[in-house]
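EI: anyone free to look at a 507-residue chain?
SC: sure, send it
EI:
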Amino acid sequence: MPTEHESRAAKMLREVFDSGRPLTYIRSSEEQRVARVLGEVSLRLASTPTPVWIWSLTEGMRRDGEVAEPGTQSPRAALDFIAAYKDAAIFHLKDFHEPLRESPEIRRRLRDLYESCRDQRKFIVISSPVRSIPEEVERSLLYLELRPPDVVELVDFLRDELAQTPAPGAEPDISDTSDANLYQLARSLQGLTLDEARYALRRALAASPNLGPESIPALLEEKRLLVNRSGTVEFIAEGGSMGQIGGLEGLKKWLTERRKLFQMRDSLSADIAPKGLLMMGIPGCGKSLSVKAIASYFGLPLYRIDMIEIFSGRHGKPEGAFVAACKMLEDMAPAVLWFDEIEMGITSTESGGEQGRIFAFFLTWMQEKSRGLFVAATANRIDLLPAEMIRKGRFDEVFFVDLPLDDERIDIFKIHLSRRGADPARFNLAQLTEFTIGWTGAEIEQCVVSALTKAKLADREIDEDDLLSVAVSIVPLSRTMKEQINHIRGWAFERAVRASPRQGGQW
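SC: here you go
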């Protein structure tokens, strides 16, 4: 839990004001949040609170809760008011980019204020949802982008909201307003604006007036709808567990160790804090299921970047859409980020083109991204992956997921039979191993489904004969695409760590 009770945004602005800069331009669509942050900063700038004045074209210059100063509605009058003001103060100018862009007189007057307000403890903050800074004042302004609120800001927001927001038809139970409970709720809201968090909170209160850990699914559902709105990022609600994965003991052991390190990430150096893993291998052997299990095992939400949407052009230029998606997901941290079939979207081919620039950004981003974001990438066409992608240091480890061994295939049969209500103890699964050599996990699942379907049509319980009759009729991928499978194995032999320990010389 954070021990510093100052939000990231307030700390950043306070340091800017402490440096004496009189002009700041904040790009944000959250006007009320900007005002809230400025109010927080005003309490920390000096021993006595610094007043905050707010200006808009429709209301003029006013202090919170007070009547606007007469004759201050025009942009020039607002700047004149600031110039004449004798004491220290913060002046928040909403959407002032419009008069700046349209009037040479306003640009000139703002440059005059830059000189007169310097070292006078008078700070002018322009907020706007767009970046529009004239060249004449560009060097005088400090430009900032307000990222979504951090946990500290969200905890304060939750405390304020719960004190005044009744659930529909009932008073909310806010008996547990401990930092631990609020921190857990705030983590589930990370990546949302305060307005979006407010609606998510009301949705949770509508579902149950007792706000606590049981409210997190309702908060995440609202978050899922908002995240999926982007079109390039998908919130994966379907979870998994380690118990649903047959075999892959090497991968499971590695994840057990890394989960502990991930939980300690804030106290570790950057080179020790887990970054993520790359899983390559044969299709149908459990890579996607493993990613879902990682998110559940780490206790984190799972997001998937849709590279098809990135390159569709529906969201602007692909490189811009990709950068925006990665930055948005950093705001969602802590989380697991899934790049499915990464070789199809991020390659170094055509280094001067869009794919090359996306690849270059991805390599740098992997080194510098938030510690709270664990990247899980999967790949089938491993020969398409450039060497820079799989070198040590980019990912924590590169795993090769091979065809399951005899005992692993038995485990997979047990998992799929149990999931469908059949007792694995009723079957002699060991006799199936000789019929399923070279099978993938997906083929085993299909064998169970087909056998269950056959038994259901005959209106009886599934038995071993059903499994055997289906098994002998399935031609596995390892036989129909033998050369390609052997090529994948040969390529990965010296380039990746096996997710399953080899036994007795088996593949």
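EI: The first helix runs from residue 8 to 18.
SC: 👍
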